[in-house]
Design goal:
Layout lengths: L3 E4 L5 H9 L3 E4 L5 H7 L5 E4 L7 H6 L5 E4 L9 H6 L3 E3 L2 H20 L2 H9 L17 E5 L3 H9 L6 E5 L12 E2 L2 H7 L2 E4 L13 H5 L5 E5 L8 H10 L2 E6 L16 H6 L3 E3 L8 H15 L5
Parallel strand pairs: 1-2, 1-3, 3-4, 4-5, 6-7, 6-9, 7-8, 9-10, 10-11, 11-12
Helix pairs in contact: 1-12, 5-7, 5-12
Length: about 300
């Protein structure tokens, strides 16, 4: 029985250690190219990857003995899951591994925006001592709406418990999920009550460009918007327009619809985004802590233990 795994990306050593305990043989080749992968994948029962390249039809067909695809991360948008399943290939990922990291990052962004930390820090470093101009707002008493109540959405709700906020949650694909941390609501309630909106949804055909100007139009109050899910679920220009017209008070964006340079700086909206004092940015790093790097690999290995080859 083929129990060889190709580790085609930089995974924490915990993955290899744990799956070898299960009897697998791992070839740890994080620098392997897509072309080289196509040439050798026929020899493997599984491939483990992060984001280096798409696991598309071509890759899947090259692995004609492939039994599973292990994605070291939360989303599966770089894996053609439908085609893989049609070939009876298991697809596993590890959203449990970075849910703490994402939730904490989102809260960090939110507190920074409410307390003008980016602006205040810059001013003090440049000899400006402006207490009144940097007076913040308290989080207590606000209504936070979480869109998507999966691993990261649920963890954000849990971590918000001590802030004495009202947490609403909307998930198109779940019902009956109200708990001690969040109340399940309709989208109509979200747009009516939300002070803060946080996205925790995967990138799919339905969610691509979900937040646009029409979406924002329905909100009854100006909101703080946070996105640490996938960049392409948001139309960035719509966010900037929302800031200009007062629909959005401020935004914290860990992900963008176009990422990395030089492609990012070539976007028409980049200069406005970069220069806006009401936006805080980070480079798709919310789920990428030192701890989550290890936990993601541990979760993947645990899930692999339940796949019978």
């Amino acid at each position: 029985m083929n129990k060889r795994i190709l580790i085609a990306d930089h995974l924490h050593p915990a993955f290899k250690i744990e799956v070898e305990k299960l009897g697998y043989i791992c070839d740890d080749l994080p620098l392997i190219s897509r072309k080289e992968t196509l040439e050798v994948l026929k020899n493997y029962a599984g491939i483990a990857i992060r984001t280096k390249f798409q696991i598309d039809k071509e890759i899947i067909d090259a692995g004609f003995d492939l039994k599973f695809i292990a994605r070291a991360g939360a989303g599966m948008d770089n894996v053609d899951e439908e085609y893989a399943r049609s070939k009876k290939i298991f697809c596993i990922n590890a959203p449990e591994g970075n849910r703490d990291a994402v939730a904490e990052h989102v809260i960090g962004m939110l507190l920074s925006l409410l307390n003008n930390l980016r602006k205040a820090d810059s001013e003090v470093r440049n000899g400006i001592w402006d207490r009144e101009g940097n007076r913040g707002w308290e989080l207590k008493g606000r209504t936070i709406a979480i869109i998507g109540y999966g691993n990261t959405g649920q963890m954000l709700a849990r971590k918000l418990l001590g802030f004495e906020v009202k947490v609403l949650a909307y998930d198109k694909y779940k019902t009956g999920f109200s708990d001690q941390y969040a109340t399940e609501v309709s989208m109509e309630q979200v747009v009516k009550e939300a002070d803060i909106l946080s996205f925790h949804i995967p990138l799919t055909f339905e969610t691509k460009q979900l937040l646009n100007e029409e979406y924002l139009f329905h909100f009854k109050k100006p909101i703080i918007f946070l996105n640490a899910s996938r960049g392409e679920v948001v139309n960035t220009q719509a966010v900037l327009n929302g800031i200009r017209n007062g629909k959005i008070i401020a935004a914290g964006l860990d992900v963008l619809e176009v990422e990395k340079f030089p492609a990012l700086e070539e976007q028409e909206w980049y200069n406005e985004l970069r220069d806006s004092p009401k936006v805080i940015l980070s480079p798709h790093v919310a789920g990428w802590t030192h701890e989550s790097y290890r936990k993601i690999s541990e979760v993947l290995a645990q899930k692999l233990n339940h796949i019978l080859l």
